Amino acid sequence: MRTTIEFNNACFKHGIIEERIRYALNKPQYEGPLEDYENKYIVLGFDNSGNLLEIFYNRINDETINVFHAMKCRSIFYPLLDE
User: Fold this and answer.
1) pLDDT tens by residue, 32-80
2) How many CA atoms lie less than 13 Å away from 25 in the CB half-sphere?
3) What is the residue-wise DSSP string for 4-24?
4) Alpha carbon 49 to chain centroid distance?
5) Contact between 10 and 70 (Cβ < 8 Å)
6) Residue among 47, 43, 39, 41 at smallest CA distance from 17
7) What's the pTM value of the predicted model, to 2 decimals?
8) Residues near 57 by beta carbon (within 8 Å), at least 6 away in sequence
9) Is 11 exposed, middle or buried (0-12, 13-18, 19+ CB in 10 A)?
10) How many CB atoms within 10 Å of residue 21?
11) Which of 36, 45, 47 is nearest to 77 (CA)?
């Protein structure tokens, strides 16, 4: 099954373009729920330039996600890479 990705304008606030977000989402190093938040997920993945990104999304339904945050990964999330 292929997932449809919607992009909330807020996800571009930190200058990460759609192509880089899609690349990181397609090759996640980590993906899981955000603690303390219902229906919010985090993906850590490298973009097509080798930058580690943190990406947050909501699941709209079984086939669609809505990305609302993308930026260079902050060190607070590095321990997730060891899981």
Assistant:
1) 999 899 999 999 999 999 999 999 999 999 999 999 999 999 999 999 9
2) 24
3) EEEE-GGGGTTS--HHHHHHH
4) 16
5) no
6) 47
7) 0.93
8) 40, 41, 43, 65, 66, 67, 68, 69
9) buried
10) 23
11) 45
Which amino acid is located at 42 in the chain? Answer: I
Query: What is the rounded distance in angstroms from the CA atom of residue 4 to the CA atom of residue 7?
Result: 10
Residue type, 26: N
Amino acid letter, residue 65: I
Report the mean per-residue pLDDT for the chain: 95
CA angle 32, 58, 62 (to 5 degrees): 85
